[in-house]
Amino acid sequence: MNVEISEVANLPTKFGDFKIQAFKELLSNGCFKEHLAIFTDPIPETPVVRVHSECLTGDALGSRKCDCGEQLEFALHMIQSQGGMVIYLRQEGRNIGLLNKVNAYALQDRGLDTVAANHQLGFSADERTYEMVETILAHFEIEKIRLLTNNPKKIESLEGIEIVERLPIIVEANPHNITYLQTKKEKMGHLF
Q1: Whole-prediction pTM value?
Q2: Which of 49, 50, 93, 121 would bridge with 75, disulfide CB 3.0–4.6 Å?
Q3: Letter string b/e over residues 152-190, b meaning 16 or more CB atoms within 10 A of that residue's CB
């Protein structure tokens, strides 16, 4: 994997003070994606780690159609208190991109769930990959983690990392995301 790594910088936030480092992944088609590691200093021997895929609408705009923004905030609070890292992967819309995500939103407005909307657009239910996670953890010489996730695909995908504990992310449902959360549980096997 061809990766360029930035310097480490301070990142004071409303959740506390963190460090941040960027990882620029060169893709086989000549394009690239830039991912982030947001972490406490020091990082514990067995840190809490949240693998979070980018969700512009949830993370930055506060969309209530998903639980992504709330999950990110939950993770940053926990990592600040217990020590660890958020690995922020640039995989918008389960890696279908922002344009296709908005098209999927429009299909959801017409009654499709998130999985059916992705299929209607020609994608699988979840196009994300997690190879970059192992690259980032190896950079920090982290071999075992406490993984903060409800997604069994993330657990299965991290073959080279010892997951000593899975920590659930518990956020409140709202009238706009209840179907989304049910679909994640029933069609994608999320652990709630």
Answers
A1: 0.94
A2: 50
A3: ebbbebbeebeeeebbebebeeeeebebbbebbeeebeb
